[in-house]
Write a structure and sequence with these properties.
248 residues; alpha/beta; seven-stranded mixed sheet
């Protein structure tokens, strides 16, 4: 059975920098049997990263749409896993004001890190949380999931002009902030026909170039890469073929 101590030891073995910025995508089931279940997983991650910044996706794109265009930062649940839903409710965690692609952050300067997402009119636009991951050269750790879950690549698509990924037309969306105020946050949405399913094609290239490392967190297979390395690799492909990730 995995414990808080053993999971923290796994993070150290993976080379996670406790005073850096860590973006997590995670499958709880893949980790295996854990003492006190999901709470222990979060305890391990949050204690290990306390000197730095821990970031989870807290997306709502599955439930916030043109028929239901309002995201309530306090009450709208995430659509990307039970651990993320638990994490965003924890004391000291700050959730960003993005209607469909919010993040939740804990640790050093967490509130400032998420502060600009309400200004975005695309899922991962420049100046927002995903862009700040690149600026900080965050470590991106996939736990029990592959690159089809790596939202950071959507950011690269936006910043480096991948073909056919963002709609031309804007739709009306709203966010209810912590004070109960309703903010107008119009959005151009993802529209690539295959979504993120093509992102797994990045993995063999990243591994071949020594940018991607594999390991274990509990029983889960992990993939670890730096944000600047990942953007540099994908941007190079897009410069030669802007439909590299489009699937056609």
């Amino acid at each position: 059975m995995h414990t808080k101590t053993s999971l923290m030891a796994d993070l150290k073995k993976l080379g996670i920098k406790p005073d850096g910025t860590l973006k997590i995508h995670i499958s709880y089931k893949a980790i295996g049997e854990v003492e006190n279940r999901g709470d222990t997983v979060l305890d391990a991650l949050m204690e290990y990263m306390k000197p730095g910044l821990l970031v989870f996706a807290s997306h709502t794109w599955d439930s916030v749409n043109t028929e239901n265009p309002v995201m309530d930062v306090l009450h709208t649940p995430t659509c990307v896993g039970a651990l993320t839903e638990m994490f965003r409710k924890r004391e000291g965690v700050h959730r960003s004001l993005h209607p469909t692609h919010s993040v939740a952050a804990y640790g050093k300067d967490a509130e400032a890190f998420v502060a600009d997402d309400a200004k975005l009119n695309t899922p991962c636009g420049e100046g927002g949380s995903y862009y700040k991951l690149w600026e900080r050269d965050a470590q991106i750790l996939m736990i029990g999931v592959n690159y089809s879950s790596n939202t950071f690549v959507h950011g690269i698509e936006e910043w480096d002009k991948a073909a056919g990924t963002i709609s031309d037309e804007s739709e009306d969306y709203y966010v209810i902030n912590h004070a109960g105020e309703r903010l107008y946050t119009p959005q151009r949405r993802h529209c690539a026909p295959l979504g993120s399913s093509t992102f797994t094609k990045i993995e063999p290239y990243a591994y071949e170039k020594g940018l991607l490392s594999f390991g274990k967190f509990g029983d889960a297979d992990t993939r670890l890469i730096g944000a600047k390395d990942l953007r540099g690799l994908v941007a190079g492909f897009l410069a030669n073929d802007d439909s590299f990730l489009a699937g056609y």
